[in-house]
Specification:
With about 525 residues, the chain is an alpha/beta fold. The protein contains 16 helices and 15 strands. The strands form 4 sheets. It has a 9-stranded mixed sheet, sandwiched between helices. A two-stranded antiparallel sheet has the order 1-2. A two-stranded antiparallel ribbon has the order 3-4.
Length: about 525
């Protein structure tokens, strides 16, 4: 007699209620953990758990933590049946038990949330597989045609493969790509493009923050950036600065606004904070999300970016890219243009005072990450006590714009009668090069004139030491001049009437020489 093995029961639900409760309990402890969690409400077998997860997702999208009062309000807004909402259906006792469950295990529960979420999703996939199999068995038993059954099998296999590997990437074919309305739109013409990560980078104390603040104020007010680049899309701006401090930011903003002819007190769309997010912290990014939504910002300036990152493995392209990805994805999700302020390397390998290049940016990964850039460097050394900065601004982007500007910024000094200011003069590189050559020629001519004046003074002193005159060779020896410079000097003195040619006696014979006229 054949031995029969016991078949497993088929009426048991494919689920893991403990894993479902663990996920929800972890989210009660740390709501920010829902970010990037590969789960949907339909993945939960228990409908109560699905409704709770849906409520948590909505609270997260609004930047609100999933505590008891928030969950109650959200669940009360979900109608289960006519006259009855989800809060009435689930009850405070169960939600409280879930929160207490999370509080009881805390760290291990939160740390294992992705593992438990994977279990919940896998159970859902298996339920879908089982349902597909049951439908095929039912079709075979009920006389479905073989060809139809085979088509159903192929469809089920494809569906099961999709469930096992997750949803496919969103793709576009050629016609769809060609018809896509996705032209790049500039916020500041030929400078900052909407939705494209932008970087402002320069050496230390080279007006990096002030130029960034000029751009931010321009976007809010609609006034031209640096007085020359038109603003095509005005929007509120969130400006986060972790180095300058509020007094300095205020003083700088007042100067920029005066130069633009606007009142800082009237810029309701400019939002400033000295608090910076940590790009690797989900909680910190969640706070940033809430702040962006509260301000309605269309552009986010972060100054400086190095204070938002760990700095670990800064030379590793992959490590830096992984740190920049969360802030980039957040800004893409919220349709906010990201502007990062950074620093250049101390040693660039370029000749000093030449235009900056992308390779000058400190740390790996930033040049690759940025879709647009404004690179700063000095055209000449800063002269203390002047308040004048002569800079190169190299502006470009993957949208196709590229330019090199020579910018002269005069801030003045605190001791000036009217205090510091923000006077900006912008030239093309060609204009600056021509002007630099002219100034160089003028300086050379001025030095030459000074030298010639000094040569005449020294030669005249030598003539006075020789009342009867002497040869030019003896005179230039007394003056300490070369033959060419002495010759130029004596010709000028004769032309001025302060010297004249004369015959002088040298070693008993007469030679040509020069003497002073006494003038």
């Amino acid at each position: 007699m054949a031995k029969h093995t016991r078949q497993p029961a088929t009426d048991q639900p494919i689920a893991d209620p403990e894993a479902e409760r663990a996920v929800l309990g972890a989210l009660c402890i740390d709501p920010a953990r829902i970010e990037g969690l590969d789960l949907r409400s339909e993945h939960f077998l228990d409908p109560v758990h699905g409704i709770l997860f849906q409520a948590m997702q909505r609270l997260h999208s609004e930047g609100i933590g999933a505590d008891m009062p928030a969950l109650r309000r959200e669940l009360q807004a979900i109608e289960i049946s006519p006259g009855r909402n989800a809060w009435q259906e689930i009850g405070a006792a169960y939600v409280g038990k879930l929160i207490a469950y999370g509080d009881g295990t805390r760290a291990p529960l939160v740390n294992n949330i992705r593992h438990n979420a994977k279990i919940v999703r896998e159970k859902w996939q298996r339920r879908k597989i089982a349902a597909a199999g049951a439908q095929l068995i039912s079709g075979a038993q009920n006389g479905k045609a073989t060809a139809e059954l085979l088509d159903a099998v192929r469809g089920s296999v494809a569906a099961i493969e999709n469930l096992a590997t997750g949803d496919a990437f969103e793709i576009l074919n050629g016609p769809a790509l060609a018809s896509l309305s996705a032209d790049v739109q500039d916020i500041i013409q030929w400078t900052i493009s909407a939705g494209q990560p932008f970087i402002i980078s320069g050496p230390r104390k080279a007006q990096n923050t002030t130029i960034a603040l000029d751009a931010a104020i321009s976007i809010v007010s609609g006034k031209p950036f640096l007085g020359c680049r038109e603003v095509l899309q005005s929007a509120p701006v969130l400006f986060l600065s972790g180095e300058s401090g509020l007094p300095t930011i205020r003083e700088t903003a007042l100067r920029i606004c005066r130069a633009k002819g606007i009142d800082l007190a009237g810029l309701d769309g400019l939002h400033v904070s000295t608090q910076l997010p940590l790009f690797e912290s989900a909680e910190s990014l969640q706070r940033l999300r809430r702040t962006i939504k509260a301000t309605g910002a269309g552009a986010l300036f972060v100054d400086p970016v190095y204070l938002c990152m760990s700095g670990a493995d800064a030379a590793n392209l992959f490590s830096v890219g992984a740190q920049l990805r969360p802030i980039s994805e957040l800004c893409q999700e919220l349709a906010v243009t990201l502007v990062l302020c950074h620093h250049n390397k101390r040693t660039t390998g370029r000749e000093k005072y030449t235009p900056p290049e992308l390779d000058d940016i400190a740390w790996s990964g930033f040049a690759e990450f940025a879709r647009g850039w404004l690179l700063i460097d000095r055209r000449e050394a800063y002269q203390p006590g002047t308040g004048v900065h002569k800079l190169w601004l190299s502006i470009g982007g993957s949208a196709g714009h590229s330019s090199l500007l020579a910018v002269d910024i005069c801030e003045g000094l605190r001791s000036d009668p009217e205090g510091r200011r923000w006077d900006v003069v912008v030239q093309t590189a060609e204009q600056a090069i021509v002007e630099a050559r002219r100034q160089k020629d003028d300086r050379r001519a001025a030095r030459r004139a000074d030298q010639q004046g000094d040569d005449r003074r020294r030669l005249l002193e030598a003539l006075r030491r020789c009342p009867k005159g002497d040869t030019l060779r003896k005179l230039r020896e007394l003056a300490g001049l070369s033959g060419e410079r002495a010759g130029d000097a004596i010709r000028c003195l004769i032309g001025e009437g302060r010297a004249e040619q004369a015959k002088v006696m040298k070693n008993g014979r007469e030679e040509d020489g020069y003497r002073s006229t006494g003038k």
